[in-house]
Amino acid sequence: xxxxxxxxxxxxxxxxxxxxxxxxxxxxxxxxxxxxxxxxxxxxxxxxxxxxxxxxxxxxxxxxxxxxxxxxxxxxxxxxxxxxxxxxxxxxxxxxxxxxxxxxxxxxxxxxxxxxxxxxxxxxxxxxxxxx
Length: 132
Hints:
Low-confidence stretches: none
Protein name: Inner membrane protein
Number of helices: 3
Number of domains: 1
Keywords: Membrane, Transmembrane, Transmembrane helix
Structural class: mainly alpha
Shape: rod-shaped
Organism: Macrostomum lignano
Transmembrane segments: 7-29, 35-55, 97-117
């Protein structure tokens, strides 16, 4: 699960870096396709941030509870650990502070993609009016 979360974070970083470049070009030169690509990249970054956060929540959920259906299962189903190590005296699992900014970033990427796509539409309308 950790590899999937990291992969999602890498995709988010690449999308934001690419959208920074295409967004600057699009706004500076008033290029509609570049602005549209920036909006789609922000949308992709938001979706992959949602995926990464969901995977992280599932990982925390699996590590913090023992499955009720399986009496032989240990506290963390991916690695066989002795039952005595599953008590709270040996380990604690919590979400931590980093998930709150991560969810805020995911929502802000999705909102920013809406603004970029609206900007793309307004620039396209403005350019078509100036051609007449």
